[in-house]
Design a protein that fits this description.
The chain is an all-alpha fold. About 55% of the residues lie in helices and about 0% in strands. The chain binds a DNA duplex through helix 2, helix 3, helix 6, helix 8 and helix 9. It catalyses: Hydrolyzes free adenine bases from 7,8-dihydro-8-oxoguanine:adenine mismatched double-stranded DNA, leaving an apurinic site. Its EC number is 3.2.2.31.
Amino acid sequence: MTTSTRAPLPTPEQDVQRDLVAPILDWYDEHARDLPWRRPEATPWSVLVSELMLQQTPVSRVLAVHEAWLQRWPTPAALAAEPSGEAVRAWGRLGYPRRALRLHAAAVAITTEHGGEVPADHAALLALPGVGEYTAAAVAAFAFGQRQVVLDTNVRRVLARTVTGTELPPRSLTRAERDLGAALLPADPPTAATWSVAVMELGALVCVAERPRCEQCPVRDACAWQLAGAPSYDGPPRRVQTYAGTDRQCRGRLLAVLRETEGSVDKARLDVVWDDDVQRERALASLLADGLAVLTDEGRYALP
DNA sequence: CAGCCGTGGGG
DNA sequence: TCCCCAAGGCT
């Protein structure tokens, strides 16, 4: 065949498409987990619920709670019709229970302001309680197939390694990372959405934070971090989050009592789960302030 | 923007 | 045991 023009030299974008994007899309096609919120029949509400639950919480612990949640509240309106305390109770031990409150508040907002339908618009999603930049982009992409830059901890780590050549991304999201994410995003919206979930999956299953399974990685040969000899992270030390003895642990103990109790409890029931009086009172006050607990007219405590 | 907000599994 | 950290958001 004859061509009237010589094929142009590959641009950097085309190199990236060939070396990074295509292999990761192929890898995802073969290795993607079958997760409920990824199935074709998954509703935007199911996706939104999953995203809130997955914030800082592993998939393995989300699965059962997500299923029970969707069974009980298949629509935002169904959840909005119940007291927020029921959301907190059904949240179980997923952690960060304020997320349950935010999800309930989001359900109320969706019901009252969006006719009961999860909005598809990024700005409208962002306005929902508990929905930040990441979650808004994720829902727009995964529930509605939009072309969005989705930058979660997995994506940031994969891009840091494969493109930037560092073991870990910066502590906070940088302009450079946003630009990089935008530059890599395929032009076609459905492909872009798949790309976003594919990079996340690679980060979750292969390009993990500790002991990455590089031997399984589809882009190992193109990985800047590998090509640089896999230098270890040299930034400022990452803050280790202490937990034992903290207010967080104390709040968790107190809320567990309320969660396991139908109705209200006497304060003595709370006093026995934490020895330090000062810390316990402070934690209880913070739960009340957060709206995770209420004080009844009888001086007892309960979920809202 | 640094600090805070839960919980449990794996190495 | 202890340490790391897992699809962030909010103030």
